[in-house]
Amino acid sequence: SFDIPVFNRNQGIIAIAKATREQLNLEYQARLHQAQADIAALVADLQLISQTEQILETALPRTRHAEQVMAEGLKTGDITEIAYQSVRADLFNKELRLLVLKQNRAEQMIALQIALGRLWNEAPAHVTK
Question: Is 119 left (phi over 0), alpha (psi -120 to 50) or beta?
């Protein structure tokens, strides 16, 4: 026995092929939207990190100056060791936080470059330089 495609014109096989193409298209669109969402989240994170870095970099000179003033005051006996160590700890915490932010920025940039498939500052493939 054999199938005679004259009667059903392979409608079953055609329907399966259409369903498979539609499923592949839906999966592609879902992955595309997820990649776009991931990139948007990475860019938003980078902006937040940059803002926080700017705040810390603005505050650090004042904290360093306060630490120097407190160190002089400690030498002359005008302030206590506890007060000086408090300001010094604040300075170290801000410097550490800034270093952590810089590391986070570098990690986010790498993740963004991976998501984009190219370097962040590199022109897209369809753009000529």
Answer: beta
pTM over 0.85: no
Q: Tokens 């096989």 — which residue? A: 13
- Cβ neighbours for 90, distance < 8 A, ≥ 6 positions apart: 63
CB hemisphere CA count around 64 (13 angstroms)? 7
Q: pLDDT above 90 covers what percent of the chain? A: 64
- The set of residues, in sequence order, having a beta carbon less than 8 Å from that of 47 and lying 6+ positions away, is none
32-51: string of b/e by CB count within 10 Å (b at 16+)? eeeeeeeeeebeebbeebee
The span from the CA of 36 to the CA of 52, in Å, is 24
